[in-house]
Please model this.
Amino acid sequence: MTRIEELERMIDALRRQRNDCVPKSNQNPRYLRYSNAVSALLWLIDDLRAEESV
Model:
């Protein structure tokens, strides 16, 4: 499994956990942290893909 695949699995897991949060809103600190973690992992994936294309 590549690094990108590992990160994509993490994103899926975080999104599932985030969906269990009530309320589903950025007003919920835990929901917001999950969202921020997903965003950070997506940035990492973009960086890795950019490195691969060089």
In short: Helices lie at 3-19, 29-52. The chain has a mean pLDDT of 97. Residues 13 and 48 are 20 Å apart (CA to CA). The chain has two helices and no strands.
